Each structure stands twice: as structure tokens, then as C-alpha cells.
């Protein structure tokens, strides 16, 4: 269980931050970029929850937010052993598979794409597209990390951006997607 009695510790005042195993890394390390970008994606999803409103989609987004905290803990736990344990919180294949099932379920109700989709339409769709773009950045940051990463972290981030894309299309409802019109503004 996490227990925070004090928010500031002063241990990072020298430009380093602690990992789960107690080791310290520079805050400028690619690993910290990835962890920060995952945190930003989580925050963007929090805004999307407000735009989506109550219901199954908001519940799924809340579950994804929890997954992203797990994913951040996974990133912050160095070492080549990616099996979860009491001491190692790891993203697992079933979390990725759940995203895939939910993508498939949402996608069944959507018309085939006729062009690239512009971010927008409803407020919920726009918020989901923003969260998708931030999730893509988190994925790119994770790919740049030099240390070995749990392969499920990369799979989860890749699938998450797909989930957010399909959810954004789903949020546009009967109004449909806002489609790119190549060369329309020449």
C-alpha cells in the first residue's frame, strides 16, 4: 500500500530521482521522460473523462488511468525480470488483451474509415484525440529508453493510442468523424 505523509522530500533537489529499487537517476534521463509522458497521458485521460461524462466509457478510462499508474511503476522498476510479483508491479498481457477486446467492441459499431480523421467533432472526441496524441508521445519516449523494458509496456502504450483513437470516433456518434479533405484549403 502506498502511504505519503509528506509530499516534498528534498531528495530530488540535486536533479536526481529515485526508482523503486532505491537507485537514483538524473531527472533528464530518457527513462524519466517516459515516466513523465505516461503521467501526462494519464492527466489528459483525466480531462477526457470529464468530457465523456458518466457511463461505460468513463469507467473504462478510469481503469486505464489505474493501468497507467501500474505502467509507471513498471517503468520505475529496473531490471530484466518482467514477471510480476509482490515487489514488482508489471504490466501483463491480459491488460493489453483487454484493450484489444474493447477496441474491437467499439469498432464493430463504426463505419469504415473513408479518409484520415481530424481531431474534433464533439468535445469528448477532441479530448480523446488529445489523450491519444500524448499517449503516442509516451510510447515514443518509452522506445527511446536504453535499459531493457517490459515488452508489455510498449504493447500497452501502442494499444492505448489505438483505443483512444477508436473511442474518439465512437464519441462522435451519429454526427460521425471530421474527415481530412486533402488539398481542400489550397
Description:
The structure is a single chain. By secondary structure, this protein is mostly helical. Helices cover about 55% and strands about 5% of the residues. The chain has a two-stranded antiparallel sheet. It has a two-stranded antiparallel sheet with strand order 3-4. α1 runs antiparallel to α2. The protein is elongated and about 50 Å long. The termini are far apart.
| Beta-strand residue percentage | 5-15%
Rg estimate, integer Å = 18 Å
Tell me the count of domains: 1
User: Mean pLDDT, as a whole number?
Assistant: 92
Class inferred from helices and paired strands: mainly alpha
Total of DSSP H or I helical runs spanning 4+ residues: 5
Shape: elongated
CATH names the topology as Hypothetical Protein Ta1238, Chain: A
**What characterizes the major β-sheet?**
2 strands, antiparallel
Number of strands: 4
Order of helices and strands: EEHHHEHHE
The CATH superfamily appears as Cobalamin adenosyltransferase-like
CATH class: Mainly Alpha
Q: What spatial order of strands do you see in the largest sheet? A: 1-2
Helix content: 40-55%
**Uncertain runs:** none
CATH architecture classification name: Up-down Bundle
- Taking the alpha carbons of the first and last residues, their distance comes to 58 Å
Q: What descriptors fit this protein?
A:
about 190 residues, mainly alpha, about 5% strand, Hypothetical Protein Ta1238, Chain: A, 5 helices, 4 strands
Amino acid at each position: 500500500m502506498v502511504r505519503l505523509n509528506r509530499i516534498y522530500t528534498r531528495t530530488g533537489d540535486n536533479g536526481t530521482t529515485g526508482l523503486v529499487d532505491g537507485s537514483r537517476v538524473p531527472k533528464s534521463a530518457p527513462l524519466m521522460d517516459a515516466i513523465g509522458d505516461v503521467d501526462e497521458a494519464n492527466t489528459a485521460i483525466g480531462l477526457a473523462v470529464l468530457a465523456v461524462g458518466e457511463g461505460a466509457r468513463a469507467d473504462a478510462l478510469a481503469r486505464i488511468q489505474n493501468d497507467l499508474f501500474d505502467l509507471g511503476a513498471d517503468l520505475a522498476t529496473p531490471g530484466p525480470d518482467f514477471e510480476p510479483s509482490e515487489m514488482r508491479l508489471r504490466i501483463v498481457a491480459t491488460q493489453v488483451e483487454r484493450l484489444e477486446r474493447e477496441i474491437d467492441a467499439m469498432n464493430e459499431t463504426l463505419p469504415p474509415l473513408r479518409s484520415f480523421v481530424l481531431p474534433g467533432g464533439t468535445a469528448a472526441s477532441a479530448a480523446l484525440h488529445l489523450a491519444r496524441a500524448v499517449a503516442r508521445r509516451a510510447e515514443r519516449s518509452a522506445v527511446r529508453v536504453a535499459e531493457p523494458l517490459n515488452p508489455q509496456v510498449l504493447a500497452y502504450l501502442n494499444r492505448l493510442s489505438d483505443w483512444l483513437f477508436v473511442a474518439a470516433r465512437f464519441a462522435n456518434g451519429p454526427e460521425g468523424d471530421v474527415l481530412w479533405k486533402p488539398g481542400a484549403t489550397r
